[in-house]
Amino acid sequence: MLVVAVALLSLGGFWLGTQAAGHAAVRVVVANHTGLPWVEVHQGDTLWKIADALSQGDDTGALVEEIKRLNGLSDSLIRPGARLYVPKDTTALRR
Fold first, then answer.
1. What does the alpha-carbon distance between residue 81 and residue 51 come to, in Å, rounded to a whole number?
2. Dihedral sign for Cα atoms in the order 51, 20, 17, 39
3. Where are the domains of the chain?
4. In 3D, which of 53, 67, 56, 64 has the Cα closest to residue 91?
5. pLDDT higher for 45 or 93?
6. Dist CA 58 CA 62 (whole Å)
7. How far apart are CA 19 and CA 42, in angstroms?
8. Separation CA 3–CA 12 (nearest Å)
9. Please, what is the angle between helix 60-70 and helix 47-55, to 10°?
10. Residue closest to 37 by CA, chosen among 83, 93, 6
11. What whole-number percentage of the chain has pLDDT above 70?
């Protein structure tokens, strides 16, 4: 029963994160030290919104996972002001 309650709370938190108001204001800048583009996280942004804005019709879920991998994120929690590196070419994520 406790496992079900924890799972429901986790799903509810994820859902709330995807429902945050506002559209992801994405500004891509090339970081000189790594050559990877990055985005600055703004209030109300989620990884899903950022990936959706960058995906250009590609698999948004795969792009979310790639952004998490590039930035060493173990979960989808991001904070305003953070800089997230994104893949140079999202077409490589097509399956």
1. 17
2. positive
3. 2-93
4. 56
5. 45
6. 8
7. 15
8. 14
9. 120
10. 83
11. 59
Tally the C-alpha atoms within 13 A of residue 95's C-alpha that lie toward its C-beta: 5
| pLDDT tens-place string over residues 47-87 | 999 999 998 888 999 999 999 999 999 999 999 999 999 98
The CB density around residue 75, as the number of other CB atoms within 10 Å, is: 8
7-11, 27-31, 47-51, 69-73: segment of lowest average pLDDT: 27-31
pLDDT at 48: 95
Please answer whether residues 24 and 43 qualify as being in contact, where contact means their C-beta atoms are separated by less than 8 angstroms: no
